[in-house]
Amino acid sequence: MTLFGYRVPMMASLLVWCVVWEIVGRLDLVFLLPPFSDVLAAAVGLVQTPSWQSATVTTLRAFAMGMALSIVIGVPLGILMGRVKIADDLLGMWVNIFSSAPLSAIVPVLMILFGFGEQTIVAAVFLFAIWIIVLDTRAGVRHISPSLIEMARSYGASRAALYTKIILWAALPEILAGIRLGLIRGVKGVVIGQLLVAIVGYGALFETFSRNFRMAEFWALTIILFAFALLIAELIERAEAKVEYYAGARQ
Amino acid sequence: MGATALRNGPSPVPAPIDSIVEVRGISKTYGNVEALRGIDLDFPRGKLTSLLGPSGCGKTTLLKIIAGLIRADAGTVAINGKRVSAPGPERAFVFQDFALMPWATVTRNVAFGLELRGTNKAEREEIARRYIAEVGLAGFEDKYPHELSGGMRQRVGLARALSVDADVLLLDEPFSAVDEQNRRKFQEDLIRLRTNQNKTFIFVTHSIEEAVYISDRIVLLSPRPGRVSQIIEPEIDRSGDPERIHRDRHYLDTVEEIWLGLKQYVE
Q1: Is the CB of residue A242 less than 8 Å away from at least one CB of chain B?
Q2: Backbone CA torsion sign across A59, A63, A66, A72
Q3: Distance, CA of A236 to CA of A238 (rounded, Å)
Q4: Spatial separation of the C-alpha atoms in residues B48 and B194, rounded to whole Å
Q5: How close B218 gets to chain A, by Cα (Å)?
Q6: pTM
Q7: In what side-by-side order are the strands of the sheet with B217-222?
Q8: Which pLDDT does position B92 carry in this prediction?
Q9: Which of A198-212, B49-63, B240-254 shows the lowest mean pLDDT across its residues?
Q10: I need a surface site. Which of A46, A157, A176, B38 has the fewest CB within 10 A?
């Protein structure tokens, strides 16, 4: 699912794999793998069903809420850790553990805490996405040239101005990179959360399709999810390109 | 207790009549490295004073203490007779590495000091444009720092310092990251600027030639611990062609004299 950038070559090789899929599917070797054209047809049918539409709304809403929370909390937390040594000493270890831990194992615990509903999904997205945002923001803040901060102080910047006019902007390339990686992890969170809860949104659909061996629809749903993850990563990458010019020029 | 006893050692020269910056008994220690010990200095109003010395003599530390960016362990700094311990509007700093905001245009960078003071946008951009022209960057108002050469970036830094209309300009090796040709041009411009602007400049450099070329007064610092070892006032006529100064006898003699004084500190 974590497929990064490189659009053009990936698209080209993707075509080759689609053709291979079609051939293997038509040969009828494995019943789990229907021909690609069937999957596409299933996708077209699927997006017209009310169950898919309501599942998509539920999923997107949980994803958006989880991401908003992890950005709103993660960026300030990262800035705090980048600026205040005590905060860094206290929290650094935990952030590092959580960012590399197998978080799927915690999702059942979330279910106990938040119940079998949307809240668990939001919590799962948050839990998957926030750590990399914190880490990247912290790294960005750490890399700010000290003279830029001295400059702001020497021209009389208040504490608020120092953060909003200098620190946030100077760390922006890293913050955006963190958010992009966080979004990709958030997609994982939303899918894993829904699969485990299994009665909400896409999780319920996946459950239905795989239980009933409706493989074409199963794959169609998978492809839609992949495409969604790629699309948002691509959108953030566009935003990153806009600040890229000064990420390199900073010094 | 005769006057001779007081004169022993590198004591400060008697205070000039009108000094804008007064430094008294400044000491600073980093860990177990004594960067500055008992610095007493007066900076005359409207003059360019250089702090010159080998690396490790604490000249940048002293400048940043005057700027209020570093806190001294002991001693006081007074500007216009008022004790200061934090940055203030009567001082403006020019940084060795320019310290420009890469996400902002030349105009916004130059106007940044005014922006922090709450000057309205139209007014501060008007002032910024004037100083951008003053430092010879007219036409580059909407460029970003990465589109400029090192020399041009430092001109932006200088324009920013001028635009806040501070009495004292503090320059921390402003030309050390600028290439040789640009540096020469920049030094000439600084001499011209000084006569136009009627400000006090405190200039940190490790280049003897640079110090003698531009300074009214040179404070020589000796290293470990940083102390004032000598104060020199080169009497060079800077009114004419700036190119001529480099061949001026007095200029060459002063450079030589300072070099002989500093040689002992260079391994």
Answers
A1: no
A2: negative
A3: 5
A4: 8
A5: 24
A6: 0.80
A7: B91-94, B168-172, B200-205, B48-52, B217-222, B227-232
A8: 93
A9: B240-254
A10: B38
> What are the distances in angstroms from CA A135 to CA A95, A167, A226?
7, 15, 25
Structure tokens at A197: 């809860």
Quick one: pLDDT at residue A246?
A: 62
Mutate to test the interface with A, among B63, B103, B110, B164 (most CBs of A within 10 A): B103
In chain A, residues with a C-beta closer than 8 Å to the C-beta of B67 are: 154
Using 50, 70 and 90 to split pLDDT, how confident is the model at A187?
confident
Give the residue extent of every domain in chain B. Answer: 3-90+168-175+199-265, 96-165
The pair of structure tokens assigned to B201 is 């400049």
Element (H, E) at A148: helix A146-154
B142-196 per-position pLDDT tens digit: 999 988 888 899 999 999 999 998 999 999 998 888 888 888 888 888 888 887 7
User: Measured between beta carbons, which residues in chain A are less than 8 angstroms from residue B95?
Assistant: 147, 150-151
Length of chain B in terms of residues written: 267
Task: Note whether A246 contacts B112, CB cutoff 8 Å.
Answer: no
Q: Which amino acid is at B266?
A: V
Among chain B residues, CA nearest to A158 = B116
Span A43-92, pLDDT tens digits: 888 888 888 888 888 888 999 999 999 999 999 999 999 999 999 999 99
**Residue A72, token pair as written in the block:** 């709103």
* DSSP character at residue A163: I
Q: For residue A243, which residues of chain B lie inside 8 Å, CB to CB?
A: 103
How far are the Cα atoms of B128, B129, B132, B137, B142 from residue B107, in angstroms, in the given order?
Answer: 6, 7, 8, 10, 6
| Domains identified in chain A and CATH numbers | 7-249 (1.10.3720.10)
Q: What is the pLDDT of residue A164?
A: 92
Which residues in A lie closer than 8 A to residue B115 (C-beta atoms)? Answer: 165
Contacts of B96 (CB under 8 A, 6+ apart): A147, B60, B172, B173, B174, B176, B177
Q: How confident is the model at residue B3 (pLDDT cuts 50, 70, 90)?
A: very low
* Minimal Cβ distance to A147: which of B87, B88, B99: B99
Distance from B215 to chain A by nearest Cα, in Å? 24
Q: Which residue type occupies A183?
A: L
Residue of chain A with shortest Cα separation from B87? A154
